[in-house]
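Review this:
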Amino acid sequence: MASDLKLMKVALTLARKGSGNVEPNPMVGAVIVKNGKIIGKGYHKKFGGAHAEIEALKNCKISPKDATLYVTLEPCCHFGKTPPCTDAIIKAGIKKVVAAVKDPTRKVSGKGFKILQKAGIEVVCGVCQKEAEKLNAPFFKFAKTKRPWVIVKWAQSKDGFLARTDKKRWITGALSRRDVHKIRKRVKAILVGINTVLEDNPMLTVRPDTGRQPLRVVLDSNLQIPQNCNLIRTAKKVPVCVFTTSSKKIKAKNVETIKIKNNINLKTVLNELGKKGVQQLLVEGGEKVITSFIRQNLADEIIVYTSNEQLAEKGKVKSSQPMKKIYNQLKKNFDDKNFFGSDTRLRRIINAENRNPGTGDNS
């Protein structure tokens, strides 16, 4: 069992390499072991590309016949963008499959294990299960609820201010902003309120452009979004979705207007985005939108970048310290802490119940 844990952790490390390139697919890693030695490694590298099991089989230096496959998610058993991994595993003569967790989707959900067992392959599931579920928490939540994993993110000064009055646009440094673009790359949509559009005129794109651009979502009750703003101006290349209570429509290509009765309900917004296949949503602000998601317990993850600059003493602020109470709570209980130059990033998973929806299965 100790060796199983060690080898599965190798597979989990491999899986993480796919972050930002495989979504909405899960990150998956695989290791093939024969006579106590690793003979093949692989991970799912990009959406639409070969799955981890196939990459590991291709990587084998000797025949994988009678070997053991360690994989972080139940092998698929259906035709999608690629053929079933179960077929390749059986054809390769794998003797045993050790999986971290069962695939929660209806197309698989234990069917892959049954096919392997029917072919005479021993199947064990549940090794490093919690780690595997945590790695792909958005994937598991979406499979369970059909609603996006919500990441709420903001940047602030050391004294807790989110905006400044001087000509300098940014609160945090270039390294922090580069990290934000990595997060944008892996999500399916980015959401802001109309005030952010009116004040900052953002692009809400991934830079540099890697070909994976998120849907840009705006909450705009009275449909105030300007026709000449950056979002509308660039909608031909990167789509925009506006939620509003207004009966008016935006006449621009690739801009969808979704009318909600009476007032914009965030749960309704999440349900609509779920129907569009949005598995991960990045909420970038501003203050009103961010606090609404957190207070309504709709945030699954909080990410805060804090600069080393004190804005109040320089007279460069134009708002109060709206997030100070939330941030003080975050400082006492966070999942990880990273540094980007002089900036600090704190990250916390909030909705743990969505993080571990699977069940153990020692098939």
